[in-house]
Amino acid sequence: MRERPALNPPAASLAIGDLPSDPAADTGHLNQLARTLRLEERRVLGFPGNLDFALEELAPLLGVFFNNVGDPYSPDASNIGAKPYELAVLEYFAGVAGALPSEVFGYVASSSSEALLHGLATARQTLPAAAVYACDQAHYSVRRACALLRMELVTVVSLPDGAMDAEDLRLQVVQRRRRAGGAIVVATCGTTMRGAVDDIVALRSAADAAGRVYVHVDAAGGGLVAAHTHPQPQWSFAHGADSLNISGHKVLGMPVPAGVSLVRRELLPETAAAEYIGATDRTLACSRSGLASLLLWARLRALGRSGMAALISRCQEVAAYAVDRLERAGADPGHIPGSLTVTFARPPAWVVDKWHLACTGTLAHLVTVGHVTYAAVDELAADLAAARWEAVA
Question: Which residues pair with 262 in a beta bridge?
Fold first, then answer.
């Protein structure tokens, strides 16, 4: 029997006791935590999440309860949410993902992983007997979603760049054709380690032998990037996706995690309004954070479509710069054109810890989201060069 890991108790200074604490002292403690993390953020290069945002002026929103109950498209009896703002956010993301707002059902989820689960739940309702085909480079949340939904998961090998191998998908589907009941393909737009983008047109064609094919796209980290890359890769509803999820914080920049779920409207059954809430509900969360919708709306309004395009362009320029600087440092960088992800040889632990690098095996990576500057790339390259000389000495 596997031993359970020991649970670390909370620090004594953070324990919640019988009596109220001193609010002023706790506020000071939390403000100091914020200041400390702010200083550390410039060195967070390995885990995607754009930390370059300024929403402090919206602090009064923390004094209001915003509860979006049920579908964003239906009124609810409480009427204390922020659904009009959520609809504006969904209209923007539908356009980014190559669909008209009338063609897709969407909602703002607590995270992109929840939005992925919503997409796969829809896929199971559509093709209840089908297996799920996902690449060995897919995010671990795909595996967790399949376990929760009790869906068979078939792992497809990846190409050297990290994209799903369409030929291996074809072979996997043919092997299961007699009992298939269709195929559910989870494509990735921006793989976790290399930033690869799967070609969903090729993957749908490769899975044709199963009969009906449902394609979900995990576009958490790469959807906004792909939509502003020329030529645009084949990743969206315009290219045949049935559902997809996009992160609200990885590239856009948010103080809290958030995600957007979008599903072709005809794939979801119509539901009657529940008497208690007076709203229809085809979401997973039921009661949802209206605050997340407001923060997304404020961030998108501050950028506008032109500002978003400029943000992505600058991030891509920093990625290209990083490839050059890491090449000079002897770090053996790798990069997929258009991606914000740059891989390189895994450095010593002190470099990994200093820059909060994500590593797998012999590889590390940096992701040039909005807060990653040219100066930070230069400093990382200098550390990598120093580490290389240490190894030689």
Answer: 106, 244
Residue 1: pLDDT above 60?
no
Cα–Cα distance between 218 and 216 in angstroms, integer? 7
Residues 6+ apart with CB under 8 A from 127: 181, 182, 183, 184, 212, 214
Report if residue 10 sits inside a domain: no
Are 240 and 380 found together in one domain?
no
Question: Which whole-number Å values give the CA distances from 19 to 11, 14, 27, 50, in the listed order?
Answer: 17, 13, 17, 39
Tally of structural domains, the chain: 2
Same domain for 360 and 233:
no
pLDDT tier at 365 (50, 70, 90 boundaries)?
A: very high
| pTM score | 0.94
| 16 CB neighbour count, 10 Å cutoff | 7
Section 232-252 average pLDDT: 97
Kindly state whether residues 298 and 384 are assigned to the same domain: no
Domain end, chosen from 302, 320, 340, is at: 302
